[in-house]
Amino acid sequence: MTLSKNLEKKIGKKIKRCQLLIEKDAGITFSDEPTKLIAICNAGLSTGLQQEALLKEALQHGTIQQVLFPPGKSYCFLQCSSITEADGIYTALNGLCTLGQDGAVLLLAFCNSLPAYHDDPWNAGRPNGLILEHDFIDETMEQALLEAVQISEDTDRPDTEPNKTLKHRKVKHFGYEFVYGSNNVDRTKPLERKIPSVCGELWQKLQQLHPHLRWHVPDQLTVNQYEPGQGIPPHVDTHSAFDDPILSLSLGSNVVMEFKQPSSEKAVCVDLPSRSLLIMSGESRYDWTHGITPRKMDTIPAPNGGLTVRKRQLRVSLTFRKLLPNEQCGCTFPRLCDTAQQSVSNRASLLASHAAQVEAENVHRVYNEIAKHFSDTRHSPWPRVEAFVRSLSAGDVLLDVGCGNGKYLASSGCSVVLGCDRSEGLLQVCIERGFNVLQCDCLAVPFRDHSVDACISIAVIHHLATDERRQQAISEMLRVLRPGGRALIYVWAKNQEANAKKSSYLRQNKQNNKPPAEDEAKNPPDTQPVQLERISGAGDCTLPVHTNRTQFQHQDLLVPWKLRSNESTEKATFLRYYHVFEEHELEKLCFASGGDSIVLLESYYDQGNWCVVLQKKAN
């Protein structure tokens, strides 16, 4: 079928409009000549287009090397094996294929590149700790297990989770019933139906293959039967309920399982063959979700390169777990950990009630003790902060709130520069250097309203122990700022590897600059256990102690400062309190403080810090 001239012209105009939007949104350019890359301009994840359906149509006319469905977008991309094959797919589908929203025809265009943010889930490295054992059992053992669990007969009621895509999935439990509402088990009600004895052979083989694993015999088994088109939402097995590892044995047919790491937004696809055993241990068990998208076909790598589709068949999975005795998880992956989240909630409450004591003990006292040594290591101004200070006009008044040793007080030659800090030791350094400084708390700055033209707060607010106190510090800066005046704020970022580049803080650890050895890359060493330190005078409030020059694992923590005294060869360790910021957290805090009275001029990442430039609106 070919398009009429009139229809071809109408479709061409629609494609041009789509191209303008996609160029702006995805940062790519289009080509009037055929290329290997095709953009589907009007269909993607947000319109309900399924990758498998698109591939089924496209593969009839050419070979596909790669498919890209940007999250939440109404467009997607195909990378073909050659320009000739791409041209064939374009001719067959453009304006003809009705996979668009509500049966609309697809609009195709050739482009010069794919969006830069794409990570191929098939070529991404597997999560650390994820092991896939192909052909773990033979066909005889597979049949014995299917007969032992009898999933097709004597089956518990279908899963009644609210998600309609799961309501007909058959499920059966052994040892303990898995309660889907809480993602846990009722330990007080063990089932009479125990894990079949035939499974004992599995543990012997697994222990021989992987003796390094934290070994135990499972006491809970969930059997699921999946018809084609059924799946299970992304989830992580409850940390406090089950030990490490989690085992999943696939019977009957193959399926693609997706792993996602919320902290990095990484996605990895793993093809699980029939009779294979998937072992989720360490990071893959605790820090990644896993799930199966409900669909009737899977997209998989083709044997000779590129991608193809495979129809799903009836599949039975056996998930083996071991109950955690004390129902307390001790993992080092807090983001998805219910124990850690409960601990964070309790810690936040304790911090709120002891905030002043925490700051007095682990900020003010520490900086007085380490003032000279700290000052000796803080002599080079950060370029963007210095540029902000130098941008002020002659006669402008700049207030540096939390000026430390005053390294920015000498950055401006023509404005009036004032500094304030809580630390007597650091203020003494400023006085010796001839700077105009005074002692105060950043929560109560002794300046009149609208009295300064600019404020800076560099690495200060992250030392305050609650959101309310951090918000109050910003409010004080805005109060003393005149209408039209600007403020620059820097806080330490939790993510020290933004834009795939390690911060200077991490690079000071030489180990971070070395490429991992091949065996270490495949099997990285276990993360160090978290050290907790009780805050003096703050009741039961404890905080994790950070390991210097490593990526942050917590937001509220203590960071060591090591100081060698003249009388001793040993270094004394002082612990400073920090609240390291997530992305966009600082902007939200600023608007909570200033509301409609401020304009966010700039927000950026610099030197391992999140940074904002604010302007106070004129009356």
TrEMBL record:
One GO CC term, this protein: cytoplasm
Major location (coarse): cytoplasm
Needed cofactors: Fe(2+)
Subcellular location per the Swiss-Prot or TrEMBL entry: Cytoplasm; Nucleus
Hydrolase is among the record's keywords: no
Biological processes, Gene Ontology terms: tRNA methylation; tRNA wobble uridine modification
Domain Fe2OG dioxygenase span(s) in chain numbering: 217-324
GO molecular function, one term: S-adenosylmethionine-dependent methyltransferase activity
SUPFAM superfamilies, per database record: Clavaminate synthase-like (SSF51197), RNA-binding domain, RBD (SSF54928), S-adenosyl-L-methionine-dependent methyltransferases (SSF53335)
Gene3D superfamilies associated with the record: 3.30.70.330, Alpha-ketoglutarate-dependent dioxygenase AlkB-like, Vaccinia Virus protein VP39
Ranges annotated as spanning the membrane: none
UniProt keyword annotations, A-Z: Cytoplasm, Metal-binding, Methyltransferase, Nucleus, RNA-binding, S-adenosyl-L-methionine, Transferase, Zinc
Annotated Polar residues bias: 502-514
Region: Disordered, residue numbers: 502-528
PANTHER family associated with the record: ALKYLATED DNA REPAIR PROTEIN ALKB HOMOLOG 8
Protein known as: Fe2OG dioxygenase domain-containing protein
Species assigned in the record: Anopheles melas
Taxonomic lineage of the native organism: Eukaryota, Metazoa, Ecdysozoa, Arthropoda, Hexapoda
